[in-house]
Amino acid sequence: MSGILMNMWGCMKSSSVFDCTLIHLPVVHNVAGNITAINNGEGIIPFEVNRVYYLYDIPGGEGRGAHAHKELQQLIVAASGSFDITIDDGKTKRTFNLSRPYLGLYLPPGLWREINNFSSGAICLVLASENYQNEDYLRDYEAFKLYKHVRFVEYSKTFLDLSWTWLNDPEIKELTMTNDFTKEDQKRFFDSLTNKEDYLVKGICFDSKPIGACGLKNIDHGKAEYWGYIGEKKYWGKGIGQIVLDEMVRTARELLLEKLYLKVDRNNQRAIRSYKKFGFIEESDSELILMTYKL
Ligand SMILES: CC(C)(COP(=O)(O)OP(=O)(O)OC[C@H]1O[C@@H](n2cnc3c(N)ncnc32)[C@H](O)[C@@H]1OP(=O)(O)O)[C@@H](O)C(=O)NCCC(=O)NCCS
Asked: CATH fold of 150-294, please?
């Protein structure tokens, strides 16, 4: 995936309603009627257009489109008639009324949007940065708000120190099948990170609070082993595990991997449910379950 898209992912997490801007599109005036053209590469809008779609025949007063995107950028234009777009970043809401075919509303990723109050005969034209991808949509408002809270950051010394406490907790130690380890083992692991090509690790934060870690190991021949845990127990059972898996799948796709696998203890029912819900398939059935996910 391109650097632009990677930045967009960070943008998804931090974008606010104040990142939406109205863009004045070029107009060629003509007595026979005006024309507005948008070409890729001219810098009129801040992304390359890969898809165009439009909504029409919408009954007057109707509303559409309550969802958010993880990576997609959009420009929305009232090509005819008018409508309201309400944008929500989980904290603040803003409503724009669009009624001019030469004004486009730019939406970065990571904003909940609803389109309402269509005038009769209105046409809502959308220029989008990506083709349709179902997994790019967040259609549940609570899931969207959770997404905005969970961030993935560099695995720093702070996470290393916290992981001493997290992984020495008897319950987490058993669930994660962690062997005994010393502070020296930890230091060796941390120092080796910069040179390891078959391994990556990220810190998980809820807002700015470190709550766990995740990563890929044994990255080799198009495959990698997923691992991850939430070390702060009060964050268990809230659905954060799905967001962690989503992040690791996105990372694995960036690395052009084809398959992820993981190993989980048969008794770790919460983790097994979380993996199955995400789409991992159980492949071997013993005390240690092997699960895989095709990318
Ligand atoms: C495993 C882990 C990453 C899952 O993340 P999570 O955000 O807590 O998971 P979710 O909230 O999505 O819950 C997963 C499912 O388990 C269910 N669940 C919650 N607590 C449960 C419990 N005690 N027993 C069984 N199922 C449970 C949830 O209801 C949910 O199922 P549903 O979506 O069908 O309702 C996280 O709990 C964790 O880190 N646990 C400790 C360490 C660990 O086990 N790591 C994995 C090692 S392989």
From this structure: Aminopeptidase (3.40.630)
